DNA sequence: TTCCAGTCAATATG
DNA sequence: CATATTGACTGGAA
C-alpha cells in the first residue's frame, strides 16, 4: 500500500490528461505533464503536485451538490425529463443575473490561490435548463474537429468566471461558431453540458483534449466547438422517453469516459482506497458508493487476472495492463 | 463488515 | 450473430 496517496485533485487532473502547453496562466499545482497518447490511453502522465485531499464544496446551497443526482437516473449525468431537446430548450441568456451561489462557492475556493479547479466547472444557473446545470470545459483543439484553427470558429476572450457568456454560447452554438475567426495557436476550449458527455463521445476520444484548469479571474480565450451536436445529445433527441417503457429491464451502468479514466487513475495510485476516499470519489464522480466499491474490487481482480495471463503467455509487460485500458 | 471468487447479464465489438 | 468486456450481484471466508 502506498505510503502516501496523491490528492484527489491531482489524480483527477492526471486522469483528464491536462496538457500544459496552453497559453493559460495556471497554478503550478495543475501541471500534469502527459505525453501524447492514443485515445483512451492517457494513464501515462506523471503527477507533479500533491495537494491535500479536499473535496470540492457543495455546488449549491439549494441544489444538488457535486456528484449528487441531477437526473432521475441517479448518476448526476443524465438529463431531467424534458431535457431531451438538447441545447435549445430554454430561454435567452440572462446577462443581468448575478453568479449563482454555486459558482461563487467555487470562485471563493479558487480565489484562495492554493486550490484549483480540479477537472470541471459546474455552473449552476438559477432558472437555467437542467441539462445545462453543469458544464465541462475542455481545452485544446481537435485536429479533426470543425473548430480547429484550420477550420475556423468563434473566439471571444472571456474571464473564466464569465459563466453567462458560456451559457449563451451553449444556447446559440451555430451563430457563435461563425462569429469570428480563429487564429492558430489559440487555446481552444470546448464547453458541453455535462449530461451530454457519455462514454464513446467523439470529444472524449480525441487524444488532444485536455481539461480546463485555471484560476478565477484568469482571462481565457474561448472558442466553442458546438457547431454540431454532441453525439449523446443527438441520441437523446432521437429517442425520447424510451427508457420509461420497460422500467423492469435493468440496464447496466456504463461509466463515462471521464469516470473511467478517473477511476483507473486513482486505481493506478491506490488499489485499495479507504472508505472515506471511495465516498469522496463517488461524490466527485456522481456515482454510488457501491459502484465505486465494485469498480475497485473488479479492477483488483481483473488487473491481477490480466497480469497472470500476461505472465503465463510470456508477455513482457511489467504491470497490469488493465490500468491503462480505459 | 469487508473482501473475494464465481457468476450473471447488459453492452461493446468485430 | 458470436465473442469479449464489464458493472453488479451472491455466498462464503476471514
UniProtKB/TrEMBL annotation:
GO terms for molecular function: DNA-binding transcription factor activity, RNA polymerase II-specific; RNA polymerase II cis-regulatory region sequence-specific DNA binding. Residues 246-306 form the Homeobox domain. It is found in: Nucleus. Residues 307-326 are annotated as: Disordered. It comes from the Eukaryota. One of its GO terms (cellular component) is nucleus. It holds the Pfam family Homeodomain. Its main location: nucleus. Transmembrane segments: none annotated. Residues 248-307 bind DNA. The keyword DNA-binding applies. The keyword Iron does not apply. Keywords: DNA-binding, Homeobox, Nucleus. PANTHER family: ONE CUT DOMAIN FAMILY MEMBER 2, TRANSCRIPTION FACTOR ONECUT. This is ONEC2 protein. It comes from Origma solitaria.
Amino acid at each position: 500500500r502506498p505510503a502516501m496517496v496523491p490528492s484527489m485533485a491531482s489524480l483527477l487532473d492526471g486522469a483528464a490528461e491536462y496538457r500544459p502547453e496552453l497559453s493559460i496562466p495556471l497554478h503550478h499545482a495543475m501541471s500534469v505533464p502527459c505525453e501524447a497518447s492514443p485515445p483512451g490511453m492517457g494513464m501515462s502522465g506523471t503527477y507533479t503536485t500533491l495537494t491535500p485531499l479536499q473535496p470540492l464544496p457543495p455546488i449549491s446551497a439549494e441544489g444538488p451538490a457535486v456528484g449528487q443526482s441531477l437526473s432521475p437516473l441517479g448518476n448526476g449525468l443524465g438529463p431531467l425529463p424534458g431535457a431531451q431537446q438538447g441545447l435549445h430548450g430554454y430561454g435567452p441568456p440572462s446577462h443581468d443575473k448575478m453568479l449563482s451561489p454555486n459558482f461563487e462557492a467555487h470562485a471563493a475556493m479558487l480565489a484562495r490561490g492554493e486550490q484549483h479547479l480540479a477537472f470541471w466547472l459546474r455552473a449552476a444557473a438559477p432558472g437555467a435548463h437542467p441539462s445545462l446545470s453543469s458544464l465541462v470545459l475542455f481545452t485544446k483543439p481537435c485536429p479533426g474537429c470543425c473548430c480547429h484553427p484550420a477550420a475556423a470558429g468563434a473566439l471571444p476572450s472571456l474571464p473564466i468566471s464569465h459563466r453567462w457568456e458560456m451559457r449563451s454560447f451553449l444556447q446559440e452554438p451555430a451563430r457563435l461558431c461563425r462569429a469570428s475567426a480563429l487564429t492558430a495557436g489559440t487555446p481552444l476550449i470546448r464547453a458541453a453540458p455535462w449530461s451530454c458527455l457519455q462514454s464513446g463521445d467523439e470529444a472524449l476520444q480525441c487524444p488532444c483534449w485536455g481539461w480546463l484548469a485555471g484560476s478565477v479571474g484568469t482571462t481565457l480565450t474561448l472558442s466553442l466547438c458546438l457547431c454540431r451536436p454532441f453525439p449523446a445529445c443527438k441520441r437523446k433527441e432521437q429517442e425520447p422517453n424510451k427508457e420509461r417503457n420497460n422500467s423492469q429491464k435493468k440496464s447496466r451502468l456504463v461509466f463515462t469516459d471521464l469516470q473511467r479514466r478517473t477511476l483507473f487513475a486513482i486505481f493506478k495510485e491506490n488499489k485499495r482506497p479507504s472508505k472515506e476516499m471511495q465516498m469522496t470519489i463517488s461524490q466527485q464522480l456522481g456515482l454510488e458508493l457501491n459502484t465505486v466499491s465494485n469498480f475497485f474490487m473488479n479492477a483488483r481482480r481483473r488487473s491481477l487476472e490480466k497480469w497472470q495471463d500476461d505472465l503465463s503467455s510470456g508477455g513482457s509487460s511489467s504491470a497490469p495492463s488493465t490500468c491503462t485500458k480505459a
